[in-house]
Amino acid sequence: MRRLAAAAVLAISTAAFAGAPGSLAGAWLFGDDGPEPKAAVVSIPQRCWNGGVDFTISETGKKLTGKARWIAPVGGVPRPPRDETETLTGSRDGNHVVLTGQHRLVTAGDPLPVVEGQPEHSTTAVRYDLRLDGRTGHLVGTRDGRPFWLARFRTHHADCGSPPP
Length: 165
Description:
165 residues, mainly beta, eight-stranded antiparallel beta barrel
């Protein structure tokens, strides 16, 4: 009975991160700062005090929507509040995925004087041109013309300890 209950919990928690088989819906590991991993599903520690990017895709037929939100690391250096997001729409044609949208950065309450010409907010266009890799299941291609990948992931427990000074 315990094994059945554990399997049910696993199935429920996995469903929150991935769509139906073959679907792109769910959470993805944002891979712009390192080599593409070899594993189909990457195991990463929980975020703890580190920053990162939360990236999700929703899929309805061939239509896609996506959201990205940058999470600032926690640390002892004072920084102005910052909100960095992307809102995306696009389509899927077989294994080809194109997402376009707006990258928005808003800073407020900067403790330092604002430098003339330095915007407190900016909005720029962003474009993803990706292909679903049949071997790994990753989305691989470009983000604004630069190499980029997205991979499925699962988190595992990490001993976070105290926040950094």
